[in-house]
Amino acid sequence: MKDLKVTIAGAGSGYTPGIILSILNHKDLSVSEIRLYDIDKVRNEDMETIISFILNKGHYKVDLLRTEDPKEAFSEVDFIFSQIRVGGMQMREKDEKIPLKYGLVGQETCGLGGFSYAMRSMKGFSEMIDLIQKYNKDAWVLNYTNPETIISEVVRRKYPDAKIINACDMTISIEEIIADSFGYDRENWIPIYYGLNHFGWYESIYDKSLKKDVMPELIDKIIEEGLNTEGQDPSWASTWQSYQMLVKTFPDRLPNNYLLYYLFSEQMVEKEDPNYTRANQIMDGRLKKIKETVKEIK
Hints:
Blueprint: E1 4-9, H1 16-24, E2 31-37, H2 41-57, E3 63-67, H3 70-74, E4 79-82, H4 88-101, H5 111-135, E5 140-143, H6 148-158, E6 164-166, H7 170-182, E7 189-196, E8 199-207, E9 212-213, H8 215-225, H9 234-249, E10 254-255, H10 259-263, H11 265-271, H12 278-284, H13 286-297
Parallel strand pairs: 1-2, 1-4, 2-3, 4-5, 5-6
Antiparallel strand pairs: 7-8, 8-9, 8-10
Helix pairs in contact: 2-13, 4-5, 4-12, 5-6, 8-9, 12-13
């Protein structure tokens, strides 16, 4: 695939540099143009500064365009990678803190907060698909916006011919921490996973080098030893430490870690600080780092 044109929708996100580097360094892709699209001009300008620096430093021969105009963003591109967050971190903070105020799960994609986010995302994402269908029906949309299954169903019902693929990385994260904890090479794994992106189970994990399904032994190791959370940020470290409890409850399948919020809701709520949630951690961490990086570059 050569001379591809790719638009990043929601380009002001802190994930954008990693996404673009993954695209540029993929051996089977040849990208000639990247467009940064966001309705937040300031965040989009900040990301333009960072991506321009990355492209120049890496000597990448790629045209870069920053725009807040959907027609310019979506016209004549091959792929549109969507990571839009309707309502931004400010609304995510409310999604997390309002339920916790009443002793309920306050989480981005689960419980009342997840429901609220889904309602906003369906409307905002649908409006973006309206524009994509208007300006470029042939573009493929790679969706990273949660809740992905609900989002894709909205698109299927409204635009059954729209080209859309969901791209959640949660299963990859689960596999990576398990493999790293116990000395396996995830590249050798052929996993069978069923359910939704944040609500599912592994049926098997076949290891090509060992020529067997290693899931039974992985379950035993997790129950006996737990996962190695060294190097994880505090929020995720706490989640992975709780994962052992989840696997003990369902020892015949490896569950997705998000099932903790459904099956052990009281325990998860007890661990949360209702005044300082994951949204605050991101605002004080990743988003602050973007501003500091822009300042250093300039």
